[in-house]
């Protein structure tokens, strides 16, 4: 089939009816507004606990996992995939040969952070990921109703047995000095979030 460029061509009719309209929706001729049929989605990598960036520790290189979100009005689908998550993560090696590490157990709680205002930070637990003890992998998915993903400031995976030694450097009073999740992703800009460790 050849595109002749004519509005009434077979190619144009096929393209409009089998691609544009199913994907983008009908065109409102009065204001030339196209209503989108497709839902927005995002795919992001999770960040791991990070020590002094100058130490260049191979143990801390990721990504340890990623997540996929399909966002709808008032509900969203989220899937999180964990891989190669070490049971013991070294974050500092000392000159005498000793090292400090974080031990990560067999499950991680999935929590969403909403910063309601400059004084309130709300964590909500929405699920738990089981980590395979041999391969250190895990997968979890859920549809979250009566929530909007646009209100989420951070996705955090917390070990219910171990507190992260790294702390928030955020200026937000409910976060500053509190433990970071073991794995996380900031979704909204917040002061010093890219350096959110002490």
What is the radius of gyration?
22 Å
Estimate percent helicity. Answer: under 10%
Beta-strand residue fraction: 35-45%
Described by the principal axes of the CA atoms, the overall outline is elongated
Instruction: Report the sheet with the most strands, covering strand number, pairing sense and barrel closure.
Output: 4 strands, antiparallel
The secondary-structure class comes to mainly beta
Quick check: average pLDDT?
A: 77
The number of distinct β-strands equals 12
The number of helices is 1
Might you state the CATH topology name of the largest domain? Immunoglobulin-like
Distance between the termini: 62 Å
The ordered H/E elements are HEEEEEEEEEEEE
Query: Which consecutive residue ranges, at least 5 long each, have pLDDT under 50?
Result: 50-61, 190-198
CATH class of the largest domain: Mainly Beta
CATH architecture of the largest domain: Sandwich
- The order of strands across the largest sheet is 3-4-5-10
| Number of structural units classed as domains | 2
Structure description:
The protein is mainly beta. It has two domains: 9-38, no CATH class; 40-195, Immunoglobulin-like. The protein is 8% helix and 38% strand. It has a four-stranded antiparallel sheet with strand order 3-4-5-10, with no helix packed on it. The protein is elongated. Residues 50-61 and 190-198 have low confidence and may be disordered.
């Amino acid at each position: 089939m050849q595109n002749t460029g004519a509005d009434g061509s077979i190619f144009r009719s096929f393209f409009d009816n089998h691609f544009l309209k199913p994907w983008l929706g009908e065109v409102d001729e009065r204001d030339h507004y196209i209503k989108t049929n497709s839902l927005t989605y995002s795919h992001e990598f999770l960040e791991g606990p990070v020590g002094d960036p100058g130490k260049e520790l191979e143990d801390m290189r990721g990504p340890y996992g990623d997540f996929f979100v399909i966002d709808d009005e008032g509900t969203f689908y989220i899937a999180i995939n964990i891989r190669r998550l070490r049971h013991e993560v070294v974050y500092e090696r000392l000159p005498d040969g000793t090292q400090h590490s974080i031990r990560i157990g067999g499950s991680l709680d999935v929590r969403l952070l909403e910063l309601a205002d400059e004084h309130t930070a709300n964590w909500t637990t929405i699920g738990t990921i089981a980590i395979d003890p041999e391969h250190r992998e895990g997968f979890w998915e859920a549809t979250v109703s009566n929530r909007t993903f646009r209100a989420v400031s951070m996705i955090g995976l917390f070990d219910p047995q171990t507190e992260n030694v790294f702390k928030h450097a955020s200026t937000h009073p409910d976060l500053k000095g509190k433990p970071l999740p073991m794995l996380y992703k900031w979704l909204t800009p917040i002061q010093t979030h890219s350096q959110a460790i002490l």
